[in-house]
Amino acid sequence: AKAPFGILADGTAVIEMAKASGFELVPAARRDPTVTTTYGTGELIEAALDFECRRFIVGIGGSATCDAGIGAAQALGVKILKEDGSGVGFGGGELVTIARIDVSTIDPRVRDAQVLVAGDVKNPLYGPYGAAHVFAPQKGASPEQVFLLEQGLIHFADVVHRDLGIDVSELSGGGAAGGLGAGLVAFLHATIRPGVELVMEAVGLRDKVRGADLVITGEGQVDAQSVYGKVPGGVAGLACEYGVKTIVIAGKLGDGYEQLYDSGISEMYALETIAGSLDAAINRPIPSIKEAASRIATKLRAW
């Protein structure tokens, strides 16, 4: 199967790791983060290099993996070796077997590249809030596999620190996408930033908000987490800088959605409520969106 990537007008490659190494690509019965790999994500980066891209935005949500990005590194030419000098296999289960990392063989074009990682979680690589304990069970890992992955991630961080001189052990966002965040920092000297910030910059949102009368944004489900690194909170924060009101159209309002009123959002409309059920909102969204727009227009006249 082929995975797409985008190239912006300025030559920046936009890569979504989920298109190559994503959770939805693996049938439920075969989900196992001890064997799934980010190799395909590395292949996408390699393909973008062939298009002479030297600036990358890599989105790292929705992964099926927990290999700390070693698969992506292998695709780019990094040698990740066992004690006997052979290369490690694919998957997070192989992390515990790493004896040495040699980046001298990496695709030389990567050395001049700027890599920005768009991630919405701040979880570290390992520990109780790390990639294995928090996310691996969602990807099909058993308790025994979670333990194996945790040991592997700790070992990976130790080897990276020893061989590359980079400490990813407490890196904010290092645990995103099964440790791919940490891997991209280690192998490609990437910078991890909130995804919403990168998207807002890429589309020039600041210039559009400046001088606007109203901002309308949205999200599938708005809840307490929407304030932290998600689109509604980020957009509202930017709009607040210019004294512009923000309205959110959401598919659903989840637990703690009220917190968004404290982050600068003036009104929220849930398509689920308008349509009468979430299924109705999903299957026939246009009437609900039109009704939300009508209610917004009524509200604007009141303002």
TrEMBL record:
Record keyword Kinase present: yes
Protein name in UniProt: Glycerate kinase
Kinase listed as a keyword: yes
NCBIfam families to which the protein is assigned, alphabetical: glycerate kinase (TIGR00045)
Family: Belongs to the glycerate kinase type-1 family.
Biological process, per Gene Ontology: organic acid phosphorylation
GO molecular function: glycerate kinase activity
Keywords assigned by UniProt, alphabetized: Kinase, Transferase
Pfam family, one: Gly_kinase
